[in-house]
From TrEMBL:
InterPro entries: PPase-energised_H-pump. This is K(+)-insensitive pyrophosphate-energized proton pump. Belongs to the H(+)-translocating pyrophosphatase (TC 3.A.10) family. K(+)-insensitive subfamily. It comes from Candidatus Woesebacteria bacterium GW2011_GWA1_38_8. GO terms for cellular component: endomembrane system; plasma membrane.
């Protein structure tokens, strides 16, 4: 940009340098992981089955979504010809502006989708390389070595997320300058769309396999968690990777890039208003500071156990990760304050970043309270197992409902701080402040993703160990790491939900701002706020609030259909001579094939629901109703996502508490009730709940890109024809989601 001085250009060069360092660090983590031993042949046989199943699933999923991505690439290119690009684009590129922006948005979309795919695919593959090596370390009795391998393999995904997210957003801004929002929307949409596909498919896969394996193996046959006689266990272990590794990585990556997109869009508005360029430079530099802090924090994890100062020494893996998270957070906050005062000449931006980091930290104890067996909510669920599965499920539901309220309060308080800081300024300052909270909240994405990926890596290591019959000492190490992984997964799920809400809220504000700009250009009265006192906006709000219910319903239905087929297959396998005796291995690949097919069935239809409904509302009821629709999606989506994630997590941990020997332990009536409660909660916490995160952001990004079209062509014959086409696609998506495929009937 011409407006940037030499110092600011150096800042941007430094941001790109940090992004590249993050990718180099990720490469080093991968090499450090694969250097470790893979253990004996028994372990490698189990591991290879997991590896083949996971890679086969991702290859099939990529083929499924490629057609949609190619179709949308064409739509995004042509969209710039339907509605001309911004005035900034014409000022920069003259008569070539339309072609340049069309190419820029299209290429940015492809880059965003590619980066999101790489984060999910490569992250999962390195996680799989790590899980067997964790088992091998545990066999040698090396607790710290097992922790180090698991955490480093997870950190690879975190640093890849940091590096690619920061690199993509910054390079697009450098190339397009003030016209960057036109291209950045394509970048954000590409990443978000792929994340939605990965979240839906991975969630259906992992929970269909888990529910099917548990209902037959644990409830009917009283077998342990990963007993090799259970034909569903390999599919279950594969599911941990495609759901929690690939799905979660893509999910947090798109939140990471969407907060950059929204902060730059709002920052450019403030640049026009004030003439100050720090509004657009500051968020990029803070993200670079966060990447640097994450590198330091993640490197420190293995050293906390033997830290020379006793008060800072970690007692277990969980404490070591939290110590590193706190270290990264302190470095980021201090550096952000120093940079804000030195560069921008004020402290408010850094305070908002600190609020975002604080919001992420607050979710740790909040999630722990509602999901840990140490506290009253899970203890009440455990107590309810004495009277059967019905009361167990009811207790789990009540815990999730209560937790969603407190989560909304925490998010609301953080947003209110932006209001208090800028209440004397024009509204756009407050909106930008919310974007800064999102920038701060996801500044430690490297740590967050590392903690999340640690969970399935430790879980898989435990499964590999049990299926290859390792000794008790190794099993104890892996069980301890697995327990820590359950906690870190629950925390990062909550963090992903909160970040999705903050990111979606920032996009919502960008929507209002962008619509106002387009209306001003067309000589219309600009939209400055969304009223809920008119009939059309009430309709939009109600329909928006209903979408998370419809989306969740069909996600859970897909799990139920697939799990039914898996239960049938696992029962057939148990009837084979020698399987129950352990002399003949079941055919794991059959269950893997069933689950892979089932997970692909509803991908397109669920995405179609998310894309078509906001466009229908906007075209039929006008752009202000679409804004109310977005408000409904954000509110209900946040409540439902937390409710489902916590309900499932609490029921899962209640089951694990009983399996540790309480209330009669494994095989008792209380245990059977807890297993049924867990299988009920599984699709809530790992399928429908997490998939709401990218769905909320897809809806907001689609609306943001479509708003100029809706404003310009509202009420024309062409808009009504397009609305009817969208309604037809929506009806098809509903019918497709309600219909079982022949392979599942």
């Amino acid at each position: 940009m011409d407006e940037l001085n030499n110092l600011e250009q150096m800042f941007l060069a430094g941001v790109i340098g940090v992004a590249i360092i993050s990718l180099i660090y990720a490469y080093w983590l991968w090499k450090a992981t694969i250097r470790e031993s893979k253990g004996d042949s028994k372990m490698q046989k189990v591991w290879n089955a997991i590896k083949v199943g996971a890679e086969g699933y991702l290859q099939k999923q990529l083929k499924t979504i490629t057609f949609v991505l190619l179709s949308l690439t064409i739509v995004l290119f042509l969209s710039v010809y339907v509605v001309p690009p911004s005035a900034e684009a014409f000022a920069r590129y003259g008569n070539n502006a339309t072609l340049v922006i069309a190419l820029g948005r299209t290429i940015a979309f492809i880059v965003g989708a590619t980066f999101s795919t790489l984060v999910g695919q490569l992250g999962m593959r390195v996680a799989i390389q790590g899980n067997i090596r964790v088992t091998a370390k545990a066999v040698k009795g090396d607790y710290n070595g097992a922790l180090t391998v698991a955490y480093r393999a997870g950190t690879f995904t975190g640093m890849l997320t940091d590096g690619l997210g920061l690199l993509g957003g910054t390079v697009i801004f450098i190339i397009f300058g003030k016209a960057a929002p036109d291209a950045l929307l394509g970048f954000g949409f590409g990443g978000t769309l792929v994340a939605l596909f990965m979240r839906i498919g991975g969630g259906i896969y992992t929970k269909a396999a888990d529910v099917g394996a548990d209902l037959v193996g644990k409830v009917e046959k009283n077998l342990p968690e990963d007993d090799p006689r259970n034909a569903g266990v390999v599919a279950d272990l594969v599911g941990d990777n495609v759901g929690d590794c690939a799905g979660m990585a893509a999910d947090i990556f798109e939140s990471y890039e969407v907060t950059i997109v929204s902060s730059l869009i709002l920052g450019l508005v403030l640049l026009h208003l004030t003439g100050d360029t720090f509004w657009i430079i500051y968020p990029l530099v803070v993200r670079a500071i966060g990447v640097f802090s994450s590198i330091i924090g993640t490197l420190a994890v293995p050293f906390w156990e033997k830290f020379p100062i006793r008060i800072f020494r970690a007692r277990d893996a969980e404490e070591a990760m939290f110590r590193s998270y706190e270290l990264s957070g302190i470095i980021t906050v201090l550096a952000a304050f120093a940079f804000a005062i030195f560069y921008a000449g004020e402290w408010k931006l850094a305070l908002l970043n600190a609020v975002g980091i604080g919001l992420a930290v607050v979710f740790n104890p909040l999630t722990s309270y509602f999901t840990s067996h140490k506290y009253k909510p899970v203890k009440e669920i455990v107590e309810s197992t004495k009277s059967g599965p019905a009361t167990t499920i009811l207790s789990g539901l009540s815990v999730g409902m209560e937790s969603s309220v407190w989560s909304v309060f925490v998010v609301s308080i953080s947003i209110a701080i932006s209001y208090l800081i800028y209440y004397t300024m024009p509204p756009v300052y407050m909106l930008y402040g919310v974007a800064m909270i999102g920038i701060g909240m996801l500044s430690l994405t490297g740590n967050n993703v590392a903690m999340d990926a640690f969970g399935p890596i430790a879980d898989n290591a435990n499964g590999i160990g049990e299926m290859s019959h390792v000794g008790k000492k190794a099993w104890k190490i892996m069980a301890d790491l697995d327990a820590v992984g359950n906690t870190t997964k629950a925390i990062t799920k909550q963090l992903a939900i909160a970040s999705a809400v903050i990111a979606a809220t920032a996009l919502f504000f960008s929507f209002v701002t962008d619509v106002g700009i387009v209306q001003t250009r067309l000589g219309l009265t600009p939209l400055t706020d969304i009223r809920i006192s008119t009939l059309d906006t009430v309709i939009g709000f109600l329909i928006g609030g209903s979408l998370p219910f419809l989306f969740s319903s069909y996600s859970i239905k897909a799990v139920a259909h697939a799990a039914t087929k898996i239960v049938e297959e696992v029962r057939i396998q148990f009837k084979r001579p020698g399987v129950m005796e352990g002399t003949v291995l079941p055919e794991y690949n059959k269950v893997v094939a069933i689950t892979t097919t089932a997970a692909q069935k509803d991908l397109i239809s669920l995405v179609a629901l998310s894309v078509t409904l906001p466009l229908i509302v906007g075209l039929v009821f006008k752009v202000e109703a679409l804004g109310a629709f977005l408000a409904g999606v954000i509110l209900v989506g946040q409540l439902m996502a937390v409710f489902m994630a916590v309900s499932g997590g609490a029921l899962d941990n209640a089951k694990k508490f009983i399996e540790d020997g309480n209330l009669g332990g494994k095989g008792s009536d209380a245990h059977k009730a807890s297993v049924e409660g867990d299988t009920f909660g599984d699709p809530l916490k790992d399928t429908a709940g997490p998939a709401l995160n990218p769905m909320i952001k897809v809806v907001n990004l689609v609306s943001l890109m479509a708003a100029p079209v809706i404003v310009q062509y509202q009420g024309t014959t062409g808009s009504w024809i397009f609305a009817f086409v969208l309604i037809a696609i929506f009806i098809w998506a509903v019918s497709q989601s309600k219909k079982q495929s022949p392979s599942l009937s």
